[in-house]
Specification:
There is one protein chain. The protein has 620 residues and is of the alpha/beta class. The longest helix has 19 residues, at 19-37.
């Protein structure tokens, strides 16, 4: 059956009786394909029938599907003719693991972050109505993404509609980790409301049997605020917000879903269809461990075990161990995560100190202001969030934490390039947005030992502190350099003359190779581990300016607003005779690919840095 899918809408040519076979073939293909390339598996296995049902009742690309986050869109890509692209999934130059408009007209919105699909869908709906067009708009949002406040802002706005807008809740009781909070509990109650579901179906069937007026009566009951569902489940959230609610429906029964989706298409206004799915369905390891198979590297299909050999301790693991150690010593230390206890390394801290651990769900803005309140209450909160996701809380960091100069520690994981997930997940902007904030201290460790020491330093510090560290194995080199962390002071690893190489955090390993090669060539560069991006170590810059004519700054952050620009501005003001060569990420979005390959592509590999220094010196 899968071979018959060559282009969008080919699913319309397949008989309904063959849909289960197609679903099975899609699952087998996804498991085999992702086992070779890595990718998001569990979420995609759970959405196979849901996606097939949607494609069968829609006409793509005329109709629009907006996938919240987008990591569940692999079946959508297959059904729109991109099956062959899975050979290079998430590889440089290959197919993205997320919807991309440049890949296909069937991808209506570029996604990667959560809770925004309803807003985007509502925008499409308003544009459709203003233009007088005629197409359906469907936003597919997971129950985990409903912990994000933006979803409710959009639903509140959508309630004013008097034209069709379909919102599908893909409810698998998971985001990346198990869902938490009131919305999760609410949806759980709906899942188990068998009395309501059975009564609703019974009453609907009975009313429809009434000659001539039956169907009209059903529609009236659905639109009435005091409808049956209000009596059986008081305070139906969606209905009370002004959205028609349909479901819940079995997300693996395609006939039931298609019937409900077609019914949703007839609603004149916003309609929520509640679909129950199983994350990881059809592959035992993924269904038993959906968090582990949310995003996975290559694995053995037979056992489910990873084929990626462990190279050493990761920065996340170093942070996790530091939190456990510090948690024993400091009774007021608390940990906060936004739906990623395992991904950020706070899971074991939560097990050791459950009363001091808070998973707030996919709600980064809330996490930061919640931390501000904890700090004002005498706690020392550590907010562990990936760099790319922390962007969502820039206003809260600036307004609620920095403005009040509160002692909140930000553990900024996945800073810099992250690889296969691409531009929506690279942490390339945190140095720019964090260093612009008054009162904020920003650090970056050179290796495993330094991250642990920076965590200890931050606990005893005052005011907001951010420590940014990269994805992957922690650098083990330069262990012989273990000078104490002093506020605002860089670490001079090697003292030379003429050229100074100033390295920020994750780029220290690369810069060590650069300086080694320069020494092999007979040069004697100074090698500086910056440590503190903010405040700037102006005393060291003043000292080095006495016998250095070139300052090379290297960072895995965009150039605009980065460390290099701060150094250049200071040197221009105080030492105009010195030259500054900032080496950073282009001021553009970087696509997916292997980290080392991406570094070479954008000029952050050791040979590229050496070449840039030589070319700069020749120009001068």
């Amino acid at each position: 059956m899968l071979e018959k899918i060559k282009k969008p809408n080919d699913i319309h040519k397949i008989a309904l009786a063959d849909f289960p076979v197609l679903a099975q073939e899609i699952r087998e293909f996804l498991i085999e394909s992702v086992s070779r390339t890595g990718g998001h598996l569990a979420s995609n296995l759970g959405a196979v029938e849901l996606t097939m049902a949607l494609h069968n009742v829609l006409d793509l690309p005329k109709d629009k599907i907006i996938w919240d986050v987008g990591h569940q869109a692999y079946t959508h890509k297959i059904l729109t003719g991109r099956k062959d692209g899975f050979a290079n999934l998430r590889k440089e130059g290959g197919m993205s693991g997320f919807p991309k408009r440049k890949e296909s007209a069937c991808d209506a919105f570029d996604t990667g972050h959560s809770s925004n699909s309803i807003s985007a869908g509502l925008g499409y709906v308003r544009a459709r109505d203003i233009s007088g067009d005629n197409y359906y708009v469907v936003s597919v949002i997971g129950d985990g993404a409903l912990t994000g406040g933006m979803a409710y802002e959009a639903m509140n706005n959508a309630a004013e509609l008097n034209t069709n807008f379909i919102i599908i809740i893909n409810d698998n009781n998971m985001s990346i980790s198990r869902n938490v909070g009131g919305m999760s509990s609410y949806l759980s109650a709906l899942r188990t409301a068998e009395t309501y579901t059975g009564m609703k179906l019974g009453v609907t069937k009975t009313l429809k049997k009434i000659p001539k007026v039956g169907t009209a009566l059903v529609d009236t009951v659905r639109k009435t605020k005091s409808s049956i569902k209000q009596l059986i489940i008081p305070g139906m959230l969606f209905e009370n917000m002004g959205l028609t609610y349909l479901g819940p429906v079995d997300g693996h029964n395609m006939r039931q879903m298609m019937k409900l989706f077609n019914e949703a298409k007839r609603v004149e206004g916003p309609v929520v269809v509640h679909v129950l799915t199983e994350k990881g369905r059809g592959y035992a390891p993924a269904s038993q461990h959906p968090d582990r198979f949310h995003g996975t590297g290559p694995f053995d299909v037979r056992t489910g075990k990873s084929l990626c050999g462990k190279k050493g301790v990761t920065y996340t693991e170093v942070f996790a161990d530091a939190m456990k150690k510090l948690g024993k010593e400091h009774k007021k230390l608390v940990g906060i995560t936004a739906a990623m206890p395992e991904g950020t390394g706070l899971k074991n801290f939560g097990k050791m100190f459950p009363e001091r651990f808070f998973d707030v769900g996919i709600a980064e803005e809330h996490a930061v202001t919640f931390a501000a309140g904890l700090a004002l209450g005498g706690m020392v909160p550590v907010v562990a969030i990936y760099s790319s996701f922390l962007q969502r809380a820039v206003d809260q960091i600036l307004h609620d934490v920095c403005m009040q100069n509160l002692h909140v520690i930000f553990a900024v994981d996945r800073a810099g390039l992250v690889g296969a997930d691409g531009e929506t997940h690279h942490g390339c902007f945190d140095l720019s947005y964090l260093t612009m904030m008054p009162n904020m201290t920003v650090m970056a460790p050179k290796n495993q030992w330094e991250l642990e020491k920076m965590m200890e330093f931050s606990v005893y510090a005052a005011g907001p502190c951010a420590i940014r560290y990269p994805k992957g194995t922690a650098y083990q080199g330069l262990q012989e350099f273990q000078s104490p962390i002093q506020y605002g002071k860089s670490e001079v690893l090697y003292r030379g003359c003429r050229t100074a190489v100033l390295s920020v955090g994750s780029m220290t390993e690369v810069c060590e190779k650069v300086c080694h090669e320069m020494r092999e060539r007979g040069e004697n560069p100074t090698f500086v581990n910056v440590r503190f991006v903010k405040p700037l170590d102006t005393a060291l810059l003043d000292e080095l300016a006495k016998d250095h004519s070139l300052f090379v700054t290297v960072e895995e952050n965009v150039k605009n607003g980065g460390f290099g620009e701060h150094v250049a501005a200071y040197m221009e003001a105080c030492h105009p005779e010195a030259r500054v060569l900032p080496i950073a990420i282009w001021n553009r979005f970087v696509e997916h690919g292997d980290i080392e390959s991406l570094r070479a592509k954008i000029g952050l590999s050791a040979p590229d840095i050496l070449c840039a220094i030589e070319e700069y010196e020749e120009q001068e």
